[in-house]
Amino acid sequence: MADPVLPSSGALSPLGLDAVRLLPGFWGDRVALNREVTIDHCLEWEEREGWIGNFRGERPRRGREFSDSEIYKLLEAMAWAGHPGLPALAETVAQAQEGDGYLNTRWSGSRYTDFEWGHELYCYGHLIQAGAARLRTYGEDLLTEVAVKAADHVCRRFMDGTETCGHPVIEMALVELYRATGTGRYLEMARRLVERRGLPALADIPFGRGYYQDDVPVRQAQVFRGHVVRALYLASGVVDVAVETGDQELLKTVEAQWERTVARRTHLTGGMGSRHADESYGEDWELPPDRAYNETCGGIASIMLSHRLLLATGDVRYAELAERTMYNLLATGVALDGRSFFYVNPLHVRVPATPLDGVNHAAEGGLRSPWFDVSCCPNNIARTLASLPAYVAAGSRDGVVIHHLTPAEIRHGGLALRVETGYPWTGSVTVRVLEDGAGRIAVRVPAWAADATLARVPASAPDAPLREEPRVRPAEPGYVAADGPWRAGDELRLELPMRPRWTFPDRRIDALRGSAAVERGPLVYCAESVADEPPLGDLIAHAEPPVEHEGDGVVELEVGAALGSGANGGWPYGAPSATGGGGDVRLRLVPYHRWGNRGPATMRVWLPTSGDARA
Ligand SMILES: [Zn+2]
Q1: Phi, psi for residue 359 in degrees, rounded to 5
Q2: How far apart are CA 178 and CA 516, in angstroms?
Q3: pLDDT for res 463
């Protein structure tokens, strides 16, 4: 089955790309744009930057020490998307593989001399993920041969050692290759890599061993810490090992780490990371909006982890966080034209960025860039969008569970369904039964959707009044289900209230005290100011019901605010100062994922409000 995660057991079974087809809509459009534009964009840049030439032996070698991994992520994207350029790129990669399976364009000749920063096992991890994707979408070919040879090399070299890699990802890659091939040593290798981490297995560094999760063994850690992408890739691999070895205690450990991290170390957008120096989590409640790091890859890694926990447990909380992160981080990471990307995703930008056509040499920036020296994010977006249908729904014991409300056709067991909706702009969702069948249809009702309703409308009476019970019933947040038998044309109609709402931060998040943000449905909104729009630096927003404006299929919002006078006595502290003085303005709020598409701008998600305006 064409699926990036195929556990052999769990509360839910994944539905792959062969069972879920996205139709035009919020995600279907993005998946199509990714297939038609973004994958080729990445391919062009990797050739232009010489990262593909490295595999042909072109010298001097170009790119960072881990640039091989970007080609592998792109190969994975191409596998999911059925891109015709895959065989040629795989052939180029294969040229650089050595006889014993070793493959790395940076360290060939001085292999395994730097486990802390060398990224050799990390690069294999992405190669192996690409190989598993190819096996599941096509079957055996040169790419899968190269990936298997590399995995066998890793098992021979590392099975009995004490070493591991400074950057996790090989753990989940090996488990997936085990699932795809049935070769037990891949799972055993992954298990050993998980257990040896934190003994410790790596050298101490100025960031501390917590940076690469080598400070304590996985089983003893209470929370995700250190470099966000490393932490979440590792946790994903730990879940995979726990599921395949039946280790419930290990699974519970990751669930507890996830729970504490979500409760105390996660930004409103689902983004993670509060420190730029080491791209890491901060302490509990350290969530500054301006210094929010929220790497796009961190959001993707969080979606990968939540998806695994969701399949293992069936717990709706994991789908909730995945949705928040998909709409507010994954969708933010790529421009509306599919050709430029955010690496970091702060929640407050004070200075408009300078437009840049070429490579962004830093991760920072208030505008999306076509490419970066470290281009993990564009390739990660490409492979994630290419496999996104697999995240939308799952199989349950007796039917289908729809986690994400987006236009799609879903076929599983005795059910063939079409989901029709304008979500996230509208709250009406219709699940239409396409063929006579049986089974339970469950649909997720998001946590914010109080007063949602579900109606069951038989094909025989599409316009009959919906008054009689039990045809319309309240749909509590969680999963709402209806059982067959079904006739072709039967419908379930879910109505979600889409009122904008003010959201307030926990008082322990010092950097946000006195502020509030606006959300509508699954979308976080932000004030964005371009050109002559009101400045966002000194204002007090009125926490009143936002006004909605609909146009071009997008809902924007508007709230009132009092601007400050901008006066400053040369010292930014003193007695309480009067607010206002700069006049009243109307602030335009755009969905956070759309910000930065109108040119250089300032932006803020959290708006200072007058006092504790929880009206
Ligand atoms: Zn990245």
Answers
A1: -75, 130
A2: 47
A3: 61
Q: Are 406 and 29 in contact (CB under 8 A)?
A: no
Can you read off the two tokens belonging to residue 454? 């579900």
**614 pLDDT above the threshold of 60:** no
Whole-number Å distance, alpha carbon 431 to ligand 1 midpoint, is 36
DSSP letter, residue 2: -
pTM of this structure: 0.97
Name, in order, each residue with C-beta under 8 angstroms of 128's C-beta and a sequence gap of 6 or more. Answer: 147, 150, 151, 170, 173, 174, 176, 177
Ligand 1: centre distance to CA 598 (Å): 23
381-415 residues labelled b (16+ CB within 10 A) or e (exposed)? bbbbbbbbbbbbbbbbeebbbbbbbbbbbbbbbbb
Q: What angle do CA 273, 279, 283 make, to 5 degrees?
A: 45
203 φ/ψ angles, rounded to the nearest 5 degrees: -75, 155
Q: Which residues surround ligand 1, an ion (CB under 5 A)?
A: 295, 297, 376-377
Rounded CA separation 88/323 (Å):
35
% the chain with pLDDT above 70: 98
Is residue 615's pLDDT more than 70?
no
Q: 539-541 and 515-520: which strand pairing?
A: unpaired
**Which residues, at least 6 apart from 583, have a Cβ–Cβ distance to it below 8 Å?**
562, 563
CA 363 to ligand 1 centroid distance, Å: 9
